[in-house]
Design brief:
about 210 residues; alpha+beta; 9 strands; Protein Transport Mog1p, Chain A; about 30% strand
């Protein structure tokens, strides 16, 4: 039976309305030479890139997350849909990680989860329980479809490991998500100025290649 009238097409989400050119996302990644000089950087091979993405996410694969609605989205495949470069400050071993990811969802989906999951726990393959606390910070102005800044701390139970603290600046242009994350285990204040410098350059490169 034919339906009467004409259906109204669904409004596409920002992530699906415009898509970046097909192919590996590596060419969209910030070059190591464009990192702040205090953080000499290298582009990671696929296996190392996957490990770096899991590290800045804070939650390992196959972790048991409570509540389950706070489990992070699966990581995109490397190297087709994800590429990573990492710079390390030799004075304190803090890092700035820059990643480009092809994603299926708009950034608003992640932001909504962030608001619901200010604190949650997970147990990894080692059965050690860790607590994740996350909060939205003030995102710097950036030429992108959407953006967010996130402070996160991952604290394992007991005294076996230190707390990992991160500040992530995240933007999305079409279906490409750009993330720059400062990571430390020392409890020091993030190097916000240099992180923003790397983030701005990373977003500009994607913007110039996608728009």
């Amino acid at each position: 039976m034919e339906a009467s009238g004409s259906a109204t097409p669904a409004t596409p989400s920002p992530a699906s309305a415009v898509r970046a050119p097909a192919g590996p996302v590596g060419p969209l990644l910030l070059a190591p030479t464009d990192f702040p000089h205090q953080y000499p950087a290298t582009t990671l091979e696929p296996e190392a890139a996957g490990s770096a993405l899991r590290e800045i996410r804070g939650v390992p694969d196959a972790a048991t997350v409570v509540p389950t609605a706070c489990a992070p989205a699966p990581l995109p495949a490397v190297p087709q849909d994800a590429a990573v470069a990492v710079g390390t400050n030799q004075s304190d071993n803090s890092t700035i990680t820059v990643a480009v990811l092809r994603v299926a969802e708009p950034l608003a989906t992640y932001k909504s989860q962030l608001q619901r999951c200010a604190s949650f726990t997970f147990s990894g393959p080692d059965q050690i329980q860790s607590t994740v606390t996350a909060s939205e910070a003030v995102a710097p102005p950036i030429n992108a479809d959407d953006s967010v800044a996130v402070n996160q701390a991952v604290s394992p139970a007991g005294t076996g490991g230190g707390t990992q603290t991160t500040l992530s600046l995240i933007a999305q242009i079409a279906d490409i998500r750009i993330q720059a994350t400062y990571t430390t285990f020392q409890g020091t204040e993030p190097d916000a100025v240099l992180l923003d410098q790397a983030f701005t350059a990373a977003v500009l490169k994607v913007h110039d290649n996608v728009r």
